């Protein structure tokens, strides 16, 4: 069988990555003075909250797509994921802890070693790597029972479980329930990725046929999110309504690739997508460095767009610099294959 690549996947990951960076930029200011610039930044922050769930969806797509026609060899699978994900996670957890201790922004706490190792509490964004690892742990067993005929059934079941979990954790008095690094808060998105993997061509045809209807749904979603926003109260990415928003935006981005294919914008977003895990791991170091060394008058909400652009540029440069070293790919699990993801 000839290899067919889903170029859209790197593109979607790139958009998700850019949205995640945007959420952290727009939260990086003093919001005690509730100015118009602050309100605009926080509104953008809320609209960008679909980025992390889309990351989970694409991670699910990659796993399910890789096993549609071949059985997983459990030991090699676990060894590969440990080397590609957990080793970089440990490395960057150590980096963030060292930097946090040195700058007194995130002091090391010896009593939280287990949380650092297994709950992603080394810094605010590392929890997502733990979520992905949890799904990797159970995926070989899931793959034994999932196929094209039952993926939709299991996806609906996982979404019901996820919704129930949202309600349970909100009322449970035990602190562990509130950890965002628990797979139950995200598992439905991984299964959504499975649906996309098994029905890629069917979904493509359907969305192309009803493209303008999809655009209408996107507009409705944006309007609903704007109505829902209640500043200065902020919602997180792991919430019930994103179960509706995320698949709609993902399908839109899937089709957007064809609309801007071979443009500079598409190549840039795909480039970010190929380096997405590197961006995810590194970008908060860059944000911290920029906010520290920029003049205080410049690190202010009105300049957030410029800060965002600088963060993207310096993060990309830093990643490319690290990849020059022999072990660069060991600490930054970025895509060596630049053309896309294979169809099996």
Give a brief outline of the structure:
The chain is built from 15 helices and 2 strands.
Query: What is the count of helical runs?
Result: 15
* Count of beta strands: 2
Q: Tally the structural domains.
A: 1
Q: Within the largest sheet, what's the order of strands?
A: 1-2
- The poorly predicted ranges are 338-344
Overall geometry comes to globular
Largest sheet: 2 strands, antiparallel
Distance between the termini: 9 Å
Mean pLDDT: 90
Radius of gyration: 20 Å
Helix percent band:
55-70%
Structural classification: mainly alpha
Beta-strand fraction estimate: under 5%
Secondary-structure element series: EHHHHHHHHHHHHHHHE
Task: List strands and helices in order, with pairings.
Elements: E1 4-5, H1 7-26, H2 36-47, H3 51-66, H4 74-103, H5 113-118, H6 127-143, H7 151-171, H8 187-198, H9 200-209, H10 211-228, H11 242-259, H12 264-274, H13 276-293, H14 304-322, H15 328-331, E2 342-343
Antiparallel strand pairs: 1-2
Would you kindly provide a written description of the structure presented here, covering whatever features stand out?
The protein is mostly helical and 344 residues long. The protein is 67% helix and 1% strand. The protein is built from 15 helices and 2 strands. The protein has a two-stranded antiparallel sheet. The termini are close together. The C terminus is likely disordered. Its main location: membrane.
Key descriptive features of the protein:
two-stranded antiparallel sheet, 344 residues, membrane, cell membrane, mainly alpha, disordered C terminus
